[in-house]
Write the structure tokens for this entry.
Amino acid sequence: LSFFNRNLLDRDTFSKSDPICVLYTQAIGNKEWREFGRTEVIDNTLNPDFVRKFIMDYFFEERENLRFDFYDVDSKSPNLSKHDFLGQMFCTLGEIVGSQGSRLEKSIVGIPGKKCGTVIVTAEELSCCRDSVLMQFCANKLDKKDFFGKSDPFLVFHRSNEDGSFTICHKTEVVKNTLNPVWQAFKISVRALCNGDHDRTIKVEVYDWDRDGSHDFIGEFTTSYRELSRGQSQFNVYEVINPKKKGKKKKYVNSGTVTLLSFLIETEVSFLDYIKGGTQINFTVAIDFTASNGNPSQPTSLHYMNPYQLNAYGMALKAVGEIIQDYDSDKMFPALGFGARLPPDGRVSHEFALNGNPQNPYCHGIDGVMEAYYRSLKSVQLYGPTNFAPVINHVARYAASVKDGSQYFVLLIITDGVISDMAQTKESIVNASKFPMSIIIVGVGPAEFDAMEELDGDVVRISSRGRFAERDIVQFVPFRDYIDRSGNHVLSMARLAKDVLAEIPEQFLSYMRVRGIKPSPAPPPYTPPIHVLQTQI
């Protein structure tokens, strides 16, 4: 994370403020703020561009609350209360990452009646060498080591360490009975091959395989990533040398040659590369309004509207929604219900808009979804059966129209139980697996959720009428597994979100990979405007 300020408050009489930024993170359970780090102090400016950057771990599935406090430093004291407070800004790490170009600009607040200026935070993923290489080798005229046949050669690659020792990092397969083997192409990460250091020595040994494990050493050569990256050329033909033979025989030339046939660099793209390039995550929620939930006016009901705390539906919705909303720029979420009889005529619907507007089921923010949920509880009659297919098909229709990787859809279904349209639901999931979408199912209440486990394709890939889902897109969890024993709902919600959202980045990437969609280029990095210093007359 990098920080810039604009138009900070001026707290010094004779010169401008000397600002510092202090970052705090919040513990999930007790909400306690802990200091994470401080920038340097920049003297005499209201528009500091801090040099010190903070490195934090980022998890899509966790909500990391951040607080930035700004002070005008007046002395050498490390105690912040000895300095003038210039205001603060609150946000989440997801908000920064999910902003256009991973750049968030927000007003500083905290001093009543004063404009405290703005802070700009930019996030950059540390790529720490995500490249991997696909290479292929062949050899010619290797020494014959076997008494009856030719040799059975294989290669062993080692990267060198700082202290001059070597660590094995790859072994090829054995090619039987030949002195001119062609090995299969293999893929290895640049980190494993040379620790990301392009000039570090890579040692390659050639062995003749023996069944008893006492493989015979044919010879060795050294190279480096930089040499190999020249690809197939006269530079990448290596003499295989056996030092013992070289020492004994005057006429020894080599024990054969190894040639590089191909060298391709592949950069692994990450989830954040797509987010930074502008891919939006669209969040839709579908809520179970079947009669088995119990009468909403009774405390035993899963839909009970308790004025003092959220019910299980509200908790699941808020837990997942508050994290995903950071990746959706317009914060407008379609909210659907299923399994209820609707006014005025009492027809049963398995895909109705919670806000009562079928043409525009969008609610503003997670709070808008909660409000629409509570409103519809008062107007519809809980009924049945429990059909999932209509809401899955509803989202799939939207997802099917986006083929360029600019949007990805996440459907959250919250249900109390036993599914009535299993065959249709499986069919709709198999169809949906071709589209940019994932489905999260949260089971609330005490029911048996065996059928749901079948939909979550972690163990056996889901299929319908002999067709298998193209990829695993469903994640099911029972809410009761996450309830905190001490009654701390904040913890229950954090645990639930962590588990149901953990698979989304991988599901997202699997769709993009299969479709060959590359991330859009990120907008150019932010460079703060240069301020003209005004001389006072």
